[in-house]
């Protein structure tokens, strides 16, 4: 991979994001801790995730153009996001990052940024 100014460019742009999101939602759709808070059809959820990750990692601002300001905490507030679900989400993302063959140091940088975001989304204690 060539070294460039953003993670988005460094990992290969939208093609890499698309591969990552596809690998991620394949896992989410089968994870017993996550299925209850995700729709049965993940098509639209994955589309929004592609837009968000593109923007989050320095690519075009497609998420904002399509959906407005991310307001991630507010958008996730209707869902019970527990520490257990956060960990399951991160487990799925880590496996998707590995499957997607995203090179270091970008894989670690992406996972660290998403880990911080995932911690911020927790809004319900484990039961």
From TrEMBL:
Keyword annotations: Heme, Iron, Metal-binding, Transport
Known cofactor(s): heme
Binding annotation for heme: 119
InterPro entries: GlbO/GLB3-like, Globin-like_sf, Globin/Proto, Hemoglobin_trunc
SUPFAM superfamilies: Globin-like
GO molecular function: heme binding; metal ion binding; oxygen binding; oxygen carrier activity
Keyword Metal-binding part of the UniProt annotation: yes
Protein family membership: Belongs to the truncated hemoglobin family. Group II subfamily.
Protein name: Globin
Lineage of the species this protein comes from: Bacteria, Bacillati, Bacillota, Bacilli, Bacillales
């Amino acid at each position: 991979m060539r070294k460039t100014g953003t993670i988005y460019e460094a990992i290969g742009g939208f093609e890499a994001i698309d591969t990552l999101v596809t690998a991620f939602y394949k896992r989410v759709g089968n994870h017993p801790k996550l299925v209850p808070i995700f729709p049965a059809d993940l098509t639209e959820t994955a589309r929004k995730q592609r837009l968000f990750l593109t923007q989050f990692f320095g690519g075009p601002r497609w998420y904002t153009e399509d959906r407005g300001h991310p307001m991630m905490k507010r958008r996730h507030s209707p869902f019970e996001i527990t520490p257990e679900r956060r960990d399951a989400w991160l487990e799925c993302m880590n496996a998707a990052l590995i499957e997607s063959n995203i090179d270091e140091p970008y894989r670690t940088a992406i996972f660290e940024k998403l880990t911080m975001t995932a911690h911020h989304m927790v809004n319900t204690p484990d039961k």
